[in-house]
Amino acid sequence: MTLSNSIDRGPLFFRDRDWHPAAYTPGYKTSMTRAPFRPLVSLGSTLSEETGPAFGHSMIGELDNNLIMNFTGQPAIGERIIMHGRVLDENGRGVPNTLVEIWQANAGGRYRHKKDGYQAPLDPNFGGCGRTLTGPDGAYEFLTVRPGAYPWPNHVNSWRPMHIHISVFGSGFGQRLITQMYFEGDPLIAKCPIVNTIGQENAIEALVAPLDMNRAIPMDCLAYKFDIVLRGRRQSFFENRTEGL
């Protein structure tokens, strides 16, 4: 299914099953305990999962897509950036009126979470999350700060590259896809055990947002462009549902 009933169904695009990593990848330590070791059971979705509960679109606030200002009303610290792109179906058509949420570490690489023990300081004016609805052509945009890299206990001296988590909802909360956006030129991408579970180089490249100087604002902020493709051979890698919607 697509994320919008208003989009006409196009021809079926067969998926490349090698596009996604194996569940058991010892280089990514956490997968060793989380990966299933028995055959998977396919469960059909229920009517409630396909149709609701739905998000109230009137609940989007004026600053919800402005992570620099939406936590306290005072500007967050860090390199200001515009994150923008389109949510697309397998035929390259924009998917309108779709809820996109993001969350991220602050400019120092620390999350506003009680279990984040990294020594980088919290920014008192940065909450680290935002949301927006796609426009008629599937476009979305966030104003935020570029997140910092941070260490994590996968192996000795293991660091996550700078990244932003992205969640895309369908017509109900049961239809949710999650992915990550990385930044062009970050040398830690090639060293990340999570990224390296993805076997195809072009699949990794699809998660890296290129610098977009055409959308950068002089003397203010840079911009990065990241399109999210829901299905088909060019679909984005989604962490929670490898086959896409």
Automatic annotation (TrEMBL):
Domain Intradiol ring-cleavage dioxygenases: 83-111
Keyword Oxidoreductase: yes
InterPro entries in alphabetical order: Intradiol_dOase_C (IPR000627), Intradiol_dOase_core (IPR015889), Intradiol_RC_Dioxygenase (IPR050770), PCDO_beta_N (IPR024756), Protocat_dOase_b (IPR012785)
Source domain of life: Bacteria
Keywords, sorted A to Z: Dioxygenase, Oxidoreductase, Plasmid
EC number(s) stated in the UniProt entry for this protein: 1.13.11.3
Gene Ontology molecular function: protocatechuate 3,4-dioxygenase activity
A Pfam family that the UniProt record links to this protein: Dioxygenase_C
Record-linked NCBIfam families: protocat_beta
Family recorded in the similarity comment: Belongs to the intradiol ring-cleavage dioxygenase family.
PANTHER family named in the record: DIOXYGENASE, PUTATIVE (AFU_ORTHOLOGUE AFUA_2G02910)-RELATED, INTRADIOL RING-CLEAVAGE DIOXYGENASES DOMAIN-CONTAINING PROTEIN
Protein name: Protocatechuate 3,4-dioxygenase subunit beta
